[in-house]
Each structure stands twice: as C-alpha cells, then as structure tokens.
Amino acid sequence: MAIPHIEHPEIPEIPPSVPGLKQLYTVAEAAKMLSLSRAHLYREMRAGRLDAVKSGRSTRLTARAIAKFIQLLEREARGFNR
Prior knowledge:
Blueprint: E1 24-26, H1 27-34, H2 38-46, E2 53-55, E3 58-62, H3 63-80
Antiparallel strand pairs: 1-3, 2-3
Helix pairs in contact: 1-2
C-alpha cells in the first residue's frame, strides 16, 4: 500500500536532526509517545497527514514527521477553540 505525501507549506521548517535524539521510530513507539493507537497513526498516514518512510517491509516515522504532525494537531486544536 502506497502512503501518500501531502506538503504542508504553512508548517515551519524543523531541523532535520537534533543531536542526541533518536531519528526513526516504529509506528508502535510513535503511538506510545503520542498516546494514540497504531491504527490511528496508520489512518493519518493513509490520509497524508503523517509522513512515513519505508525500508523493506518496515514502516518508520522520522522525528521530523512526528514534530510536524504535532504542529498540525496543535494548529487544528487552536481552530476548534475559537
């Protein structure tokens, strides 16, 4: 299954690497960090709201993609709280 990629130009650039931080996370690790289910994250990936990388059969989320996803959720939350 191909994971679509949608550009989010309104999200500011995030440094590609922060020394000392892990750069790739499994979907299960990211789900635990975000307090979301693995199924929810896969839905977000299919919708193009969360970018993922594939290596063979493994799906990984970059630290940058997770940070962008959090910013997207924060921006959406601000819109609902008006």
